[in-house]
């Protein structure tokens, strides 16, 4: 490991379990364990998996003008967001380029938490300070003050119910993209969610796999015990420790972007994530003013991003060297992401999932490559492309979505 790499509180656990470690966002992180990426990916789809996400950054934004500042710098409109709800969006430059995507958590009209990607805390703190002028706002970088882990999959609530106080009260209600509790009682008062040993946590009904589950924020000194406790009580459910490779394949199958790869230094538009922008009903304009909005309204077209699914497990590398060819053989773009979702297959012209109900008798789910391409012209679902990396090529079909029958948005009562 490079001496410059940062570590999470779970770093030693990863290494003692034989994890394949790599640099991700300046952190020494596990890519996969001895179980392997396929097993870890399928564990989330069929039971549950846990992920170390302490490499992600968080900041507090407080003060009377918090809503005004965040609403100007963030793409989503948080002025109507209820307390104890969170929302996904992005921070843009004046040119409409994505600095980072994020989830904003609202405690009150004057107190918010923002969860960002690895190493982006200081960048967004600077961005907010640059744009706050004389507004009454305090911005605090929580680097080193918070740990985070995710538990994702259909058995997540059953496992957590054995480890938190008053699970019935905590889980009822807890809709998608809502949260309860806090990890800093001295600042925010007594937490409404605590572990059995009294440790306060923020429990968020969210995640980045497309499947039912939770994100857990807590004091760094408590995460190793929680991680081990989940593996112990979750053993009967087959809970599995998962690395970043499975997280990447799961988020790709869920049609979700990776910041600085699928979204970055190009205009934040013409992509599958329109829910991250405050469009009017007819999508002719936006419902609020925000940094970068003028660039997005501009009529000049620069690029288009589309999800695709391959015809088999075979995949290509992402990046400038992998070309996207249209049906005439002309190069029209590049591959942003190409991963393998082991839980899907084609059947009679449609993608089916291992989680789909009423699967055809005898069907075998073998997995498909999938991801995102950036191209120079508009395409439509069903169009086939060739993705070429040197002499290697695969056939890809433009789709509107990738893995069907995802569980993230289903009612929590289905999983208790």
Task: Give a verbal description of the structure.
The chain is an alpha+beta fold and 416 residues long. The chain has helices spanning 11-16, 37-46, 66-73, 121-131, 156-160, 167-171, 185-188, 223-233, 244-253, 293-297, and strands at residues 20-24, 27-32, 49-52, 57-62, 85-92, 98-108, 111-116, 138-141, 147-152, 179-181, 202-204, 213-218, 240-242, 304-310, 319-325, 331-341, 344-347, 350-353, 368-375, 384-389, 392-398. The strands form 5 sheets. The chain has a 6-stranded mixed β-sheet with strand order 10-11-12-9-3-13, sandwiched between helices. It has a 6-stranded antiparallel β-barrel with strand order 14-19-16-15-20-21. Strand 15 (319-325) and strand 16 form a beta hairpin. The longest helix is centred in the N-terminal third of the chain and has 11 residues, at 121-131.
Secondary-structure map:
Blueprint: H1 11-16, E1 20-24, E2 27-32, H2 37-46, E3 49-52, E4 57-62, H3 66-73, E5 85-92, E6 98-108, E7 111-116, H4 121-131, E8 138-141, E9 147-152, H5 156-160, H6 167-171, E10 179-181, H7 185-188, E11 202-204, E12 213-218, H8 223-233, E13 240-242, H9 244-253, H10 293-297, E14 304-310, E15 319-325, E16 331-341, E17 344-347, E18 350-353, E19 368-375, E20 384-389, E21 392-398
Parallel strand pairs: 3-13
Antiparallel strand pairs: 1-2, 3-9, 4-7, 4-8, 5-6, 6-7, 9-12, 10-11, 11-12, 14-19, 14-21, 15-16, 15-20, 16-19, 17-18, 20-21
Helix pairs in contact: 2-9
